[in-house]
Specification:
Keywords: Signal. InterPro entries: Ferritin-like (IPR012347), Ferritin-like_diiron (IPR009040), Ferritin-like_SF (IPR009078), Ferritin_DPS_dom (IPR008331). This protein is 48% helix and 18% strand. It has helices at 101-126, 135-166, 177-183, 204-231, 235-266, 271-281; strands at residues 5-12, 18-25, 35-38, 47-49, 55-57, 64-69, 73-80, 86-95. The strands form 2 sheets. Strands 2-1-8-7-4 form a 5-stranded antiparallel sheet, with no helix packed on it. Strands 3-6-5 form a 3-stranded antiparallel sheet, with no helix packed on it. It is rod-shaped and about 90 Å long.
């Protein structure tokens, strides 16, 4: 089966290049498997040239032509005249879909948040059992289920709307995120849920440490996504991750860290009594 190729088109003149448009080549969802290079029509003798193997120019003597690719790499094209003077140049980056941050949000971030909902639910149930009955703590972890669900809703809604925002980019072939993430089986939001990653706490202090580890892992993933989005110059996504998600999670990490320290101090000499007192005062 022909693989899906995502293409980031960077266009510019001979002295510089800048982000212009994002193009997806997806045989399963689109009949378009090429990207169009558009050059100047001032000089009739203009033609496209490239020294990069793996790129095929459909019609080199046409200022506007299509080009297809056989591998993932950066490809450089120049529109030159009869005297071999560069009139315009374009750089096309063909990348695998796994390199795109918006795809990793769907295939990595969403399943992780969904998994954490079940993990927090398990922690909540643990402290409603008769042998470890700490109801205020139990309600706290159940509230983490709702907060994580709300966070995941933000992410999912952003992903669902992303293909609309990219349609406003210059060019006629923006990425069809809806097609790739929702219409194709075994991709995107249909990624399998890992319900086996559940660590049983030794005590209440350890329970807060486990929850802290969950949040820290998500922040680490979000940081990776921010760096990836910056590389693709998707500053809309950078702003969303940096202002809508990361601050909320870092605040949660601070709360969990404080709870861990508090219960550790109270239960230092008598674990059972300390946890009981912590729960009585916990809100």
């Amino acid at each position: 089966m022909k693989q899906v190729i995502w293409i980031l088109l960077l266009s510019g003149f001979a002295k510089g290049q800048s982000f212009n448009q994002l193009v997806m080549v997806s045989p399963a969802c689109s009949t378009n498997d090429e990207v169009t290079l558009k050059g100047s029509t001032v000089t009739n003798g203009a033609h496209w040239v490239t020294e990069d193997a793996g790129a095929r120019i459909s019609n080199a003597i046409s200022p506007t032509t299509n080009v297809s690719f056989t591998r993932y790499d950066d490809f450089h094209f120049k529109l030159v005249n009869r005297r071999n003077e560069v009139l315009q140049q374009q750089t096309v980056r063909a990348v695998h879909q796994s390199q795109l941050p918006i795809v990793n949000m769907a295939t990595k971030l969403v399943p992780r948040l969904l998994t954490h909902q079940y993990q927090y639910l398990a922690l909540g149930h643990l402290y409603f059992r008769s042998i470890s009955y700490l109801p205020n703590v139990g309600r706290f972890f159940r509230s983490k289920v709702d907060k994580t669900s709300a966070l995941m809703d933000k992410v999912v809604n952003y992903i669902r709307a992303k293909h609309v925002t990219t349609a406003a980019l210059d060019g006629s072939n923006p990425p069809n995120y809806s097609c790739f993430l929702f219409d194709k089986p075994n991709y995107g939001l249909q990624s399998p849920l890992n319900t086996e990653e559940r660590e049983l706490p030794r005590n209440l202090k350890h329970a807060f440490a486990i929850a802290f580890k969950y949040e820290r892992g998500v922040v680490g993933l979000l940081t990776e996504l921010v760096h990836a989005a910056e590389q693709f110059e998707d500053y809309e996504l950078v702003e969303f991750l940096s202002t809508e998600l990361i601050p909320e999670l870092t605040k949660s990490m601070k709360i969990l860290s404080d709870h861990k320290k508090s219960v550790g101090r109270i239960s230092k000499n008598n674990e059972g009594l300390g946890e009981f007192i912590f729960d009585r005062e916990f809100n």
